[in-house]
Design brief:
The protein folds into two domains: 2-81, Glutaredoxin (3-Layer(aba) Sandwich); 89-195, Glutathione S-transferase Yfyf (Class Pi), Chain A, domain 2 (Up-down Bundle), CATH 1.20.1050.10. The longest helix is centred in the middle third of the chain and has 31 residues, at 89-119. The two termini are 27 Å apart. By secondary structure, the protein is an alpha+beta fold. Helix 1 (12-22) packs across helix 7 and helix 3 (89-119) packs antiparallel against helix 4. The chain is built from seven helices and four strands; from the N terminus they run βαβββαααααα. Strands 2-1-3-4 form a four-stranded mixed sheet, with helices on one face. 56% of the residues lie in helices and 10% in strands. 33% of the residues are buried. Residues 1-81 form the GST N-terminal domain.
Amino acid sequence: MITLHHLNASRSLRILWLLEEMGEPYTLIRYQRDPATRLAPASLKNIHPLGKSPVIELDGQVLVESGAIVEYLIRRFAPRLEPAFSSPDYLKYLQWIHFAESSAMVPVLLKLFTQFETNAGTQLKFLDGYTRAEFDKVLGYLDTALENRTFIVGDTLSGADFMLAFVAITVVEQMKCGAQYPHLQAYLQRLAALDSWKRALKLERELDE
């Protein structure tokens, strides 16, 4: 059976949602962030030296990195969530599944961190200017790609959506930038209407209670 070591308010939401969509039995072990530092508890290092989440255990092995976990679980348990290799959508699928953690998350996190600095009364002028330009470029690209689309690749839910959902929820809900990126905001609303997403968020919110 799959075991997910899940940290609240983290990329692990991708895996929690994927597991709910797959319908495979799994065990959920929950971890809570430190309320002061917002860091993961040291106990996660007992599972993997990086002490980060998501982490899954399966068949006596431990796997980290949300992109690797998404690709592995889909390939093994839910091939319906991945376009066929011969499909013209396969290259787009690969692009978007990796875009989520490479091109997208760097400017998103930088902008989030500069917001934290601003709230603390510190100004990082160069970093703020660079981050703003990269954020607008990358999120504008994603927003345009989502125009007139239900999902990011083809007409069905895929692993790329599980990866991009965390980008969307960070930008729209945590950073309050939905009005700037209406197609991304509408995309998140469509994902939020899925039963598996609702179940995953319910589990996530229970962790915060």
